[in-house]
Amino acid sequence: MSGTKPRLRVAMVGYGFMGAAHSQGWRVAPRFFELDAEPELTVIVGRDAARVEAAREKFGWMRAETDWRRVVEDSAIDVVDICSPGDSHAEIAIAALDAGKHVLCEKPLANTVEEAERMVAAAERAAARGIRSMVGFSYRRVPAIGFARALIADGRLGDIRQTRAEYLQDWLVDENGPMTWRLDKSQAGSGSLGDIGAHAIDMIQYLTGTTVEAVSGTLATFVTERPLLGESRGLSGTASAERGRVTVDDAAWFTGRLAGGAIGSFEATRYATGRKNAFRIEISGNRGAIAFDLESMNELQFYDATAPAGERGFTRILVTEPEHPYMANWWPTGHLIGYEHAFAHEVRDFVDDITAGRDPVPSFADGLQVQRVLEAVELSAANGSAWTETGGAR
Ligand code: SOE
């Protein structure tokens, strides 16, 4: 670290699970990657003064603040990182961009297409003044995913015909598990669909370099009432005596037609008993295939259909070589990385783009495209799984 580098003074809104992950990213990235600006964990923001102060101390931020508006108006802040629930994204992001702050916003970009469109307009206005924005689809920054993307871009899979993406969690299997903001449509926008289905959509669009143009989908809510939340802990927490209504989907399935002719299947659920955070991707082309599972995130399976017939088979590649994306800056070959590293990579890329004057990806426009697919799935499900257009490409 050099004292001569410009500082990038960061304000982070939110201090839950994602706030913890982003704090780790901001802290670790400059220690393992050479950045042209030095991030400073300047202020952490949350509505509850006592809790945000406890988070400040735990995650190592300099100050705590209870009103995001003060932070957005503060000329001593360069970056606003939004880790709060989806219903606050549009208002904070637009205000921050209009005030000249670079913005990193957690996924999904917004709760509705209309909000996402306003965010894209603000991002475009800001970009004209050199202000950058990015949506936090962090799994793009898993080295095995970056490597898969490079294989696909090099044509190693040939023409892609089918994609499969399933994001399986089980933290709602217990019907007495409490309500959290993720189960409240007014805060989260949707359930499994927007929370983890959004990752699946972004990932398939990113890996294939294409977009989902039409969908046919189904949504299900298995448990419609739950105890209200007592003390929050991770994704869940303790249950109180009162009960509340679940207003989002518990599980989502859909098939999609991709620009370019491929078809894709998508599943997102919090009821896949025994599956904790199994984000599985498979992409099949006429020259090869890849398979990935986040529960074994340091590995990529690659099938080379051009190899001699007797030698073909899925090869397990341990993605820990210095040649692999991001890995040269971590540990010696074979020494694994984990969930939080993707957030450090996200910060590295965002800071690099800010200092190089480039527009980061995934952009707010990419986030809007995902939002259009989410909305089309909801429309389709409401119309008996009717095929529904997603309303245009990026
Ligand atoms: C909860 O389902 C969640 O934390 C998502 O919100 C994250 O985006 C994902 O990384 C892990 O699961």
Task: Supply database-style keywords.
394 residues, alpha/beta, Rossmann fold, Dihydrodipicolinate Reductase, domain 2, 2 domains, 9-stranded mixed β-sheet, 6-stranded parallel β-sheet, 10 helices, binds alpha-L-sorbopyranose
- The helix/strand class is alpha/beta
> Which regions contain 5 or more consecutive residues with pLDDT less than 50?
none
Please list the strands of the largest sheet in the order they lie side by side.
16-15-14-13-7-12-11-8-17
Number of strands: 17
- Overall 3D shape: globular
| Mean model confidence by pLDDT | 97
What does it look like?
The chain is an alpha/beta fold and 394 residues long. The chain folds into 2 domains: 7-139, 3-Layer(aba) Sandwich (Rossmann fold), CATH 3.40.50.720; 140-360 and 371-382, Dihydrodipicolinate Reductase, domain 2 (2-Layer Sandwich), CATH 3.30.360. The chain is 32% helix and 28% strand. The protein has 10 helices and 17 strands. The protein has a 9-stranded mixed β-sheet. Strand 4 (79-82), helix 4 (89-98) and strand 5 (102-106) form a beta-alpha-beta unit. Helix 5 (113-127) packs antiparallel against helix 10 (364-382). The mean pLDDT is 97. Bound molecules: alpha-L-sorbopyranose. Residues 17, 169, 195-196, 235, 277 line the site of alpha-L-sorbopyranose (SOE).
